Amino acid sequence: MNITNELIPTRQSLLSRLKDWNDQESWKVFFDTYWKLIYSAGVKAGLTDAEAQDVVQETVLSVLKSMPNFDYDAEKGSFKGWLLRLTSWRIVDQIRKRQRDIEHERHESPTSTETDCVERVVDPLGLKLEAVWEEEWEKNLMEAAIERVKKKVEPKQYQIFDLYVFKSWPASKVAQVLKVSAGKVYLTKHRISHLIKKEITHLRTKPI
After folding, report:
1. Does 72 have pLDDT greater than 80?
2. Are 199 and 149 in contact (CB under 8 A)?
3. Which of 46, 103, 110, 136 could be cross-linked to 122 through a Cys-Cys bond (beta carbons 3.0 to 4.6 Å apart)?
4. CB neighbour class for 92 (10 Å; exposed up to 12, middle 13-18, buried from 19)
């Protein structure tokens, strides 16, 4: 499936519901949709797994805190750009924290060298977060659509699709292992591919 360079629009209805801090289901939908995007941006910016996880938590917390006074206006800028700004601030926070820790270690250990510190610090100016964000946004779009479709179809149907499309098994092998006809394999691939494309269209076209 060819994916063009478009955005995942954040549905306005979801943002409206997020203003209620007690709406756990809306927060679950939001977290499930965006956590991988935020995490991946952090890792590609040079953060460790733990640092990237902190970025996810702090960014989601920032979104939560912003919701009571947040008004979505597509003409003033995309939700994607707003989320990028929040994420980049949290990434820079982690870099600064790392730099402070390194400086502390350097002062505590006379054997440490300035070169050691420089090699362990990511340069915030060289992160190119916008380019990373664009790339990860597209990946996240596809993954979010696949996850949503996976929850809507029968487990065996998705298994057929996964083995044939993602694992690249021959249709004959999928049919033999799962005890279905080759026709069933082709039909399932067509049906689920259509559902994924439909979900992507939904994510892109519904105002968020």
Report:
1. no
2. yes
3. 46
4. middle
CA-CA-CA-CA torsion sign (71, 76, 78, 84): negative
Map out the domains of the chain as residue ranges: 1-140, 152-208
> What SS3 state is found at 48?
coil
Give the list of residues 6+ apart from residue 157 with CB closer than 8 angstroms, or none: 188, 191, 192
Residue appearing with tokens 């953060």: 47
**Whose CA is closest to 22, among 68, 62, 56?**
68
CB count within 10 Å of CB 192 equals 22
pLDDT higher than 70, residue 97: yes
User: Per-residue pLDDT for 152 more than 70?
Assistant: yes
pLDDT over threshold 80, residue 34: yes
Residue with tokens 């054997």, as numbered in its chain: 111
Domain 152-208, CATH among 1.10.10, 3.40.630, 3.40.1350, 1.25.40: 1.10.10
Mean pLDDT of the residues in the chain: 80
Q: Choose among 110, 108, 124, 111: nearest CA to 47.
A: 124
Taking 60 as the threshold, does the pLDDT of residue 24 lie above it? yes
